[in-house]
Design a protein that fits this description.
The chain has helices at 5-11, 14-19, 26-39, 52-60, 64-76, 79-88, 104-112, 125-137, 172-185, 202-216, 227-236; strands at 93-98, 116-122, 143-146, 158-164, 186-197, 239-246, 254-261. It is an alpha/beta fold and 262 residues long. It has a single domain, classed as 3-Layer(aba) Sandwich (Rossmann fold). A seven-stranded mixed sheet has the order 3-2-1-4-5-7-6, sandwiched between helices. Helix 4 (52-60) runs antiparallel to helix 5 and helix 4 (52-60) crosses helix 7. 32% of the residues are buried. It binds S-adenosylmethionine. The site of S-adenosylmethionine has 20 residues, from helix 7 and strand 2.
Amino acid sequence: MAQPSSTVRESAPPSSRKSARPERPSFLRALRAVGQATAQPPRYEAPEVYGREAIWKIARALPPVEQAYAHIRFSILRPKLLSVMDLLLTDQGRILDVGCGFGLFAAYFGQTQPGRSIVGVDPDARRVKLATQVSKTLGLANTFQVGDVRDSTLEGPFDAAYVLDVMHHIPKDDQRAVLSRLRDLLVPGGTLIVKDITTEPRFGLAFTELLDRVMVGWDEPLAYRHHREWGQMLDELGFHVRMVRVPDILPYPHVVIAATKR
Ligand SMILES: C[S@@+](CC[C@H](N)C(=O)[O-])C[C@H]1O[C@@H](n2cnc3c(N)ncnc32)[C@H](O)[C@@H]1O
């Protein structure tokens, strides 16, 4: 095995050491080391968990009302929650964002790992238009399409998929078929992240439902499930399932489910 150059220099005979250039003063060596370190591209980064810069860039790319919405949404889906999901998602490849809305999280996860190419789908054409605009402004390789996850054409396979606070907007009888469709769209070993609201404690659910009603009105069905129900359903559909509940200052009963296609 080749010896590191420092070892070779130390084991050289005294005569050859004499002919070597005199050692520079230690502060000059330190200066040179710093110069070399800064010249190298960093191999490992640990971006700030709060991702404030990423969030501000997203908000600034939106019109004023949606800008305010973005700040509210990011204060609900707090950076600690986003970081859990960020680390569960593959850092490159194609990722499906189901019910992408304004594309806030496609823009967030696209910024944290630029190797990701996120495809968003949502039935709301105006949201899809703004999602496209935000990702374009930020120079991200994300694309968006108008459609319902239940029946729109989705070009798989995807390396991962995520469904952030969308499953409870899908009628109860269709939820299983949606998860089954997502499984079929994933590569083997691909991860599906479901972030939703679990049904306990009941006060937390009532609090969330009230705020959801403010957004969607009283006619749309809201179909929440207990996290154990989601877990069992995903297991039956051929996923390996892990879950965490993420406490919040506000009483949202957040649950993050990481389901890996077996
Ligand atoms: C609470 S918003 C969440 C948006 C986005 N995921 C986020 O976290 O900001 C729910 C979104 O799900 C979308 N949605 C509802 N039913 C859907 C369906 N069947 N297929 C795809 N998206 C759907 C809505 O249009 C809406 O944008």
